[in-house]
Amino acid sequence: MRWRICSCKAYDKTERASPGLTARRKCILNMDRHLYLLLTIFRPKPIFMRKRLYLLLAFLWMGVCMLSAQTKNVSGRILSAENDEPIAGATVLVKGTSIGVVSDAHGHFTLKVPESATELIVSFIGMETQEVGIKANLTIRLKSANEKLDEVMVVAYGTAKKSSFTGAAEVIKNEQLEKMNVVSVTKALEGTSPGLQVMGGTGQPGSGATVRIRGIGSLSSSSAPLYVLNGVVFDGDISSINPDDIESISVLKDAASAALYGARGANGVIMIQTKKGNAEKSTLSVKAVWGFSSRAIPEYSRIGIKDYYETSWEAYRNALVGTGQSMEKASEYAAANLINKQLGGYNNLEFNL
Q1: Is residue 126 within 8 Å of 145, Cβ to Cβ?
Q2: CA distance 183 to 207
Q3: What is the pLDDT of residue 25?
């Protein structure tokens, strides 16, 4: 049923004609009456319709611009968690943006952030990075990053904390190896430790790379480092070890680190520790790698058998012309001796293919 907004007199006539209307229909009729009255009162005159529309659009546009440009000020202070000393030069960034400031000499900072921002990222050299919620006044206490000093590293015939180790060594953890898409241990060592050089071998498939620690140690003998696998000297091919089975790699560089291995560790020591089973729970790891390869340049144009003979004959003829023969004699000689002396001959022996 379609309902039209009509005059109040029409509704009165409808009620008088149908006195037995239900309560629901009377309610609908009353709502239509009120809607009709509102439209009649607020109906703009045609002469002002366009101006009012333009003004309405202008106000809406100004409101959108004001909402998009709304910012708020955030201030605070950055202190050290150990002694509450102010930290100067700490970086404060709005998460997800490039908006940021640096704290002053007293650790204070003031930053204008968008209304939609909810978190700040605070970082400083030697301190742990923190993400804090945005408030009016912030007091941020940064903790020292001591996890590297407490790191346990594998050394000669045992383990030691990095804070108590005095030699020059570098530890490559399993987390770093998992991010690399490599098929050999030597490839995993590239660019992971200062002073460690990994150079490609012969280029043949399966050939190992050349590893040097702090340059060449000897001109007459080998300069390869000593490999130690799970505490045992490893004399096999280092490329045969699966990188996914490695827990950590320790690179011992100086004499203090490799002194326990004597002359065999003169060129440095690479200690490899493999993964071990866990008695508490079983773990299943699945790793899938896929890719594609294509030529760097398009495929060369190739010729068939017929074109190959014609091209060979033309080259043979031109070579004979270059020796002083005429074009006719060179063509006849090339046609008669092309297969025997050029395409099938060996040491000037004439035979057919």
Answers
A1: yes
A2: 12
A3: 55
Picking from 78, 80, 82, the residue whose alpha carbon sits closest to that of residue 91 is 78
| CA 12 vs CA 36, 184, 281, 292: distances in Å | 14, 94, 84, 81
Q: Which domains does the chain have, with CATH numbers?
A: 71-142 (2.60.40.1120), 152-274 (2.170.130.10), 305-343 (no CATH)
**With the C-alpha atoms ordered 337, 342, 346, 351, is the resulting torsion angle positive or negative?**
negative
Q: How many residues does the chain have?
A: 353
Measure the CA–CA gap between 353 and 344, rounded to whole angstroms.
6
Provide the token pair at 18: 């149908």
- Sorted by sequence, the CB contacts under 8 Å of residue 279 that are 6+ apart come out as none
- CB-CB contact of 77 with 107 (8 Å): yes
- pLDDT < 70 regions, the chain: 1-54, 56, 59-69, 146-167, 201-207, 220, 257, 342-353
Among 277, 275, 256, 273, which residue's Cα sits nearest to residue 265? 256
- For the chain, the first-to-last Cα distance in angstroms comes to 97
Q: Point out which residues pair with 226 in neighbouring strands.
A: 269
Q: What confidence score (pLDDT) does residue 50 get? A: 60
- Is residue 88 within 8 Å of residue 104, measured between CB atoms? yes
Is residue 245 helix, strand or coil?
A: helix
Question: What is the per-residue pLDDT for 282?
Answer: 77
Q: What pLDDT score was predicted for residue 353?
A: 38
| Beta strands at 130-133 and 119-123: parallel, antiparallel or unpaired | antiparallel
117-142 pLDDT tens trace = 888 999 888 788 888 888 878 889 98
Q: Provide the pairing of β-strand 169-173 with 269-274.
A: unpaired
Pairing of the two strands 226-229 and 232-233: antiparallel
CA–CA–CA angle 249, 194, 179 (5° rounding)? 50
